[in-house]
Amino acid sequence: MGTDKKSFFGVMKSYNKNFWVASGMELFERWAWYGLFAVLALYLTGSTDDGGLGFTHTEKGQIMGIVTAILYLLPMITGVIADKIGYKISLIIAYVLLMTGYYFMGEVSSYSSVFLVFLWVAVGAAMFKPVASAIISKNTDESNSTLGFGIFYMMVNIGGFVGPAMSSTLRTQYGWKIIFLQAAIVIGINLIILLLFYKEKDRVKSSDTMGEAIIGSLKNMWEAVKDTRLSVLLIIMVGFWTMFNQLFYTLPTFIEDWVDTAALHNSIAQVSPWLASFMSGGGTSINPEMLINIDAGAIIVFQLLVSYFVLKMRHVSAMITGFIIASIGIGITFYTGNGLYTILGIVIFAIGEMMTNPTFSSFIALISPKGKEALYMGTYFLPIFLGNFLTTFISGNLYQAWSDKISLLQTEMASRHIEMPEITKEFTKNDYFASASEKLGMTQVEMTQMVWDNYNPNKIWYVIVAIGIVTILALAIYDRLVIRPKEAAAKSI
After folding, report:
1. Regarding the domain delimited by 16-197, which CATH topology (the fold level of the hierarchy) does it fall under?
2. 246-280 pLDDT, tens per residue?
3. ∠ CA 297-301-303, rounded to 5°
4. Model confidence, pTM
């Protein structure tokens, strides 16, 4: 039966219990993940007297970039494991890993221990990720899969919005430790949902050993990427994911360092005191994660409208347009220290993201040879994997050298031959900043402006926007040389 023969409510009624259980679990898992990930850069680099770990941006970039890259590579293996041992057992393992990992992330403080525990979390997330999508796939059919995956994607964004919003309030009022406890508790709710409501259907068991199945999966992946049309597209999409990652890796610390969110809070409070209180977590300045969260909020509200608009466009044209819009948006967010421009840039980027990401998935399906759709779709995570590795350098080494406020202030103090103590657990980043302010005879706001004027920390946007421009040009060339000739050939038949 085609979807045109069913009303909207008819399609909604067609989904079984396992579909809704998987959708709900996706919401809670994203709540836990983004509730931590949206503030992780701030926690890792925050001053120790504020409860942060005081890491350098280079260390932050390595922890977030390398571990998350591994997360997006592992589903090629964890998906095979799930098929062998069953979805329910796989999810139980995932939730145990996630609960323990989230909890202990709040208990460790050295670079190596944080890296290893976060890697533990990543393994749990990688166990969950392919299973949730597979349950949706197995519990939908041709008549309801389009809307079904739309609902699933909506759950991703609802969880991605609620998590940071909750974390913003919690960390402001109760400190950093509660963030990790929140994530563990939310995953615990998922475990309860799984045990009480998910009933696994009989599955066809493969005769292959675990090793044979994993090797087979890797061979299939290699078979797909040997298709030049697909592999070139995947390489181009690395640029998009590198830009996207700046929202969570780089922008929160840039806002913390350079954007006067107290002034923004006061401006919003004049219009809506409730909204100002919500975005500040009850504090006196807007928390960076709440500004970042505008991206998820915009997607929840406007994705259907944007998707409808994109339906009228060629896939590649929509992706190019999305890249252009996203590049403009991400450029604006890093261009000034004005909070209103930060908001504007995030909204613009969200529009570009809404045009690009779903279209990318659809386009892979479009260019997939008949009967190999699942094989080709399995390559979706590869550009995300590579994008995270690139982000390790941009958000780490590059930000440390060009944009980190403390590093630039240290350079300024050295140029003036003003002796300052080294930053330690006893003499924190906050202590250094306060001491420098006193020795320079400036308020901290004046000193921040001075460092901005002298060192232009926003120049990191040159690199980020350059990645966007190169990606746009590469996609345009790809369209002209690969896609349009194939479209023309198809029309001539």
Report:
1. Growth Hormone; Chain: A; (1.20.1250)
2. 999 999 999 999 998 998 899 899 999 999 998 99
3. 105
4. 0.91
